[in-house]
Each structure stands twice: as structure tokens, then as C-alpha cells.
Design goal:
26% of the residues lie in helices and 21% in strands. By secondary structure, the chain is α+β, with helices and mostly antiparallel strands. The protein has a single domain, classed as Glutaredoxin. Residues 1-25 have low confidence and may be disordered.
Length: 226
């Protein structure tokens, strides 16, 4: 369903823009507002429900077996609830697996906030998220990924083999990204990951969204600057 209000077009402000001059990407939220996403019970909601009434930080992960996504979401789980409440923002993770993989992923990562899946990858595709990995020697590695690539991939394979339902919990080639949007169709920030290590630093995202504290993710979340 389309509305009479034209949503703004936003320029992607991403690490690659700032570091190596890669052209920006423009997105329109009206292209994805009615795409259906699913909660852990398989109940569908339109994507616009995430941001129409307030500001949301929305993280798209590659797949639920991806070791770097697991470790990134583990750090998202350390964000104190009061930090989000004080800034009046929602934190949402979106994967592209079947909905029944949500509960085990939350148990694994300790993630306590909102999470949905886009099994058809409709939102991923319409927002222009990449479906291949590109590694740049000059790119910064995610500060939230602790495992090396070899051991990380072994962990992912082991989890796939020991999962009650043997599947890859999403398209293995699909990359993720980050979006800060709302209230309404306003987009504050958008970034497409180029590879599994290209996550936006969490503190950077939170500060763009209005969180005043800087958190230390080295172990337990500690406020190191106010």
C-alpha cells in the first residue's frame, strides 16, 4: 500500500564512503515499508512497524550460523536497556532464516531485544544489500569479532551439523547492514556490509541514534564516557 507522503531519499554514509571514496547508495523506505517480516512465533508484521512511531537501530545479519554475526549480536546483547530507553530508541536485529531459528539464536547470543526474520530476503534485496563478499586490505576489521576466520568457520560448521534442523539458516552469500530510521520514513543512516567483518561499530551507531553514553564491549558493558 502506498501513501500520499513521499519518503525522503537518503545518502548512505558508510565506512567505504569515508575511507576509499566508494559511491554512496540512495534508498527509499517506501519501497520496503510493506514487506513482511516474521517474529519468533511466525507472526508477520510489515517492516514499517519497526520505525513508524519512533527511531530504531536496525541490524541486518548475514545468517544465524555466521560466527561474526553471532559475536556481533553477543555485543549488541550487552547494551544496557536503560541506555536505549534514555535515548528513546528501539534496537532490532533481522536475519534471513526461518522463524524457528530465532529462539536458538537468542539463547546462543543472550540477545534480549527485538528480532525478526526476512526469509524471502525481500527487505535485503530492495535495500540493495550485497550478495557477495569483497575484502579490502585497507578496511577496518569489526572490533566486535573475536574469532579468526578459520576457527570461526569451524564453529559455524559445527553448529550447522548439531542443529536440530540441519540447514544453513539463511543464504550464505547474503551480506548484512545497518539502518537507523524513524519516526516515520526518515532515514538517519544506512550502511551495506561488504563482507562478514564489515560491521559498523556499535558505539558509533548508538551515538548516531542519540545514545549519549560510550560503552566498553571488552567484557561486560561499562559506560566509559558520558
Amino acid at each position: 500500500m502506498c501513501t500520499d507522503v513521499i519518503s525522503p531519499i537518503t545518502r548512505q554514509v558508510a565506512k567505504e564512503d569515508r575511507e576509499d571514496g566508494t559511491p554512496s547508495v540512495d534508498i527509499r523506505l517506501e519501497d520496503v515499508e510493506d514487506c513482511l517480516i516474521y517474529d519468533r512465533h511466525g507472526v508477520s508484521v510489515p517492516f514499517k512497524k519497526l520505525y513508524q512511531d519512533g527511531k530504531s537501530v536496525i541490524i541486518f545479519v548475514r545468517n544465524f550460523l555466521c560466527y561474526s554475526c553471532e559475536e556481533y549480536v553477543e555485543d549488541l546483547s550487552k547494551i544496557p536497556k536503560e541506555a536505549l530507553e534514555d535515548a528513546d530508541i528501539r534496537l532490532v536485529v533481522i536475519g534471513q532464516a526461518a522463524h524457528y531459528h530465532i529462539e536458538p539464536f537468542c539463547s546462543l547470543t543472550g540477545y534480549p531485544y527485538e528480532i525478526y526474520v526476512d526469509p524471502e530476503r525481500s527487505v535485503y534485496q530492495k535495500l540493495g544489500m550485497k550478495r557477495e563478499e569483497k575484502f579490502n586490505d585497507s578496511a577496518n576489521r569489526s572490533p566486535h569479532v573475536k574469532s579468526g576466520m578459520f576457527m570461526g568457520q569451524l564453529k559455524s560448521i559445527w553448529r550447522a551439523m548439531t542443529s536440530p534442523v540441519f540447514d544453513f539458516q539463511g543464504d550464505l552469500h547474503q551480506q548484512g547492514g545497518a539502518l537507523i530510521a524513524g519516526p516515520g520514513p526518515r532515514v538517519h543512516f544506512y550502511h551495506c556490509d561488504t563482507n562478514r567483518l564489515d560491521h559498523m561499530p556499535i558505539n558509533w551507531l548508538l551515538q548516531l541514534a542519540g545514545v549519549q553514553q560510550t560503552l566498553d564491549f571488552s567484557d561486560k558493558p561499562k559506560i566509559i564516557d558520558v
